Amino acid sequence: MGRRELCGIPLVAGIVSGSAWWFQAEKEVQPRVTATGQTAWQLLQEARQAAVEELRALIELRRAELAPDDLAVLEAQVLMIQDPELDRLVTEALDRGLTVEEAWEGAIERTRKLLEALPDPYLRARAADVRDIGARVLRRLRGVDRQPASGPGGILLAEDLTPSEVVALERSRVLGVALVAGSLTTHAAILLRNRGIPAVIGLGPALREVKDGTVVTLDGERGCVILEPTEDEVAASQERQSLLARVRAAAWEQRNEPAQTLDGIVIEVGANVGSLADAVRARENGADGIGLLRTEFLYLERETPPSEEELREQVGAILDAMGHRPVIVRTLDIGGDKPLPYVSLPPEANPFLGIRGIRLSQQQPELFRVQLRALCQLRRPGLRIMLPMVATIDEVQWARQVLNDVCRELQESSGVVKTLELGIMIEVPSAALLADHLAEVADFFSIGTNDLTQYVMAADRTHAALGTLQDPLHPAVLRLVAQVVASARQKGRWVGVCGEAASDLTAVPLLIGLGVQELSVNPDLVPDVKAEVRRWSLRMAQDVAQRALQCRDAAEVRSLVRHQREQPEESTPRQS
Amino acid sequence: MTRQEVNSVEQFVVRLANRAGLHARPAASFVQVAAAYASQIHVRNRTRDVGPVDAKSILGVLSLGAEQGHELEIQIDGPDAAQAAAALRELLEQRLPAEDR
Q: For residue B69, which residues of chain A lie inside 8 Å, CB to CB?
């Protein structure tokens, strides 16, 4: 009997077992409604009214359960269904003789594209809401009463889910969700997370072979679905689930404690922050500081560059939110992919290999100078500056010169100004290879594993088909990390990691085992990363890291760490 | 004697003070207030040079991409223009910023 396991992308942690059932109407072919003219308009208005009522009922049903922001999105959907702009587009299309479905779908499609083109990611995410209401109205038009909650209960399988469909899921019946689609709209993903429904996405067409009623175990930690597990496997997964729940609760309890390895080495666990709201979340989650403050949000979406005062005020607010904890501010990291109206950049064929980060600062020294002036005036202990996209030694020397000039100016005009520590991101392979020289001109290093991986593996990090080449745990990347740490150590510099790898629990022992002293992660993951640090002794982490350097690919590295991790007795110190 | 409807025109500019700009919830409030008046109301994002769009359309309002600090130009034309102007000003200048606190 062929027992199989399908693996995709983990979305919401948790392990559950139950019978699989397909989202109703997934495979039903619904007859199209082909009315035209005045009849079409009437039918559509009725369908829209029914959709509004359906959505309002759903909002009332879940009001107590949903976060205010999630409710707001659904309430905005109600307005979208009745939108006069859609009226106009539909009327135009009906006047041209199109059928009701063609007119509605055309109007939805045009509006969706309009929102998708917006620069703000939050507003762009609303395009999914337009698609969501479009489908809801169409369903009512065809007279289909799609009740996703009416299944038998268990593990829900679907092609994809819209935000309102996630809201409609009956929490008591839906133990977990497994999807064919590889990328869920941000909001549907957030809703699944907020509702605490374990989920795996990106399972691909293989999932379609799973029949209703098949018993499955969904592992939201690893991102896998086990088909027809044995009784032992079900029991083991239940045990693992309750263990994980305890581990997570303990991690939250201890979030404000330092992350100390079993042999007493303290690893600083900071957060990656891109707004004041992130900083507040970072503090709530017990972050020891900010290992990466992205300053792009201060520059995007405006006609003129921010003034020194504005920068001082906004960065100051974030420092305030963090109390006296260390904050590393990365200078503007922008390039041809995110053009600013006040910076003229010629279009580039490869913006990720073009003028960005420190290269842009060299071309636009005034922008850089103003940013440094603002930071120098903040005079806070623990505030450090970090340069993005460094490839050569002279770039750092240039920046250091500008920083010294700025400090001198300020000293002359307003008295004592202490200079700030100046570190660099290690994300360009040349910087990793020159780390010994760079350690003489930079005060610290922070490895940006996403970009480093992209450049080392020559694999666009946004390319959907290059998954295996985008894993920052690839031995090729780990070897560079090892080299960077060794070079930094010799010169007495410390090394942090602020890329995605630091948020990946599998990477935690490898990074600390290679000598990384600071991890900067997604604010929500701070408690989990701290807990992971506490599971390991430095000695064991060093051992597994050295073995990982000898692996042939990322999959081998991952299985090595997993194997080591799943033997809890080995990760506690033996009594003599 | 027939009562004659007097159309008046109101126009004003506001700088968005609330943190979220016209994102989902504030955009919905804005549209709901606008929809309560008979006048035609149009709004343009001067900072990004987008619009004008129908202020009673949530899709239109979202497409302005209006964020904190952006300048909105609002044009109202109709029998209750003055009341609509007062209500929208109150929303943008008082109520939405107050929600941040």
A: 302
| Closest chain B residue to the Cα of A76, Cα to Cα | B28
Task: Identify the architecture of domain A256-571 in CATH.
Answer: Alpha-Beta Barrel (3.20)
Domain boundaries, chain B: 19-99
- pLDDT tens track for A12-70: 888 888 999 888 654 455 678 888 889 999 999 999 999 999 999 999 988 888 877 78
For the domain covering A37-141, report its CATH number. Answer: 1.10.274.10
A187 is catalytic: yes
Q: Which residues contact A570 (CB under 8 A, 6 or more apart)?
A: A540, A564
CA-to-CA dists, residue A190 to A186, A235, A275, A330, A527, angstroms: 6, 29, 18, 27, 19
Which whole-number Å values give the CA distances from A253 to A249, A257, A322, A504, B60, in the listed order?
6, 9, 20, 20, 45
Residue of chain A nearest B50, judged by CA positions: A118
Query: What is the ipTM score, two decimals?
Result: 0.88
| Homologous superfamily, domain B19-99 | HPr-like (3.30.1340.10)
Q: What does the pLDDT look like over A392-433, one tens digit per residue?
A: 999 999 999 999 999 999 888 877 667 799 999 999 999 999
Q: Quick one: pLDDT at residue A122?
A: 73
Name the architecture of domain A5-27+147-249.
3-Layer(bba) Sandwich (3.50)
- Res A567: pLDDT: 66
Whether chain A has a CB inside 8 Å of the CB on B32: the answer is: yes
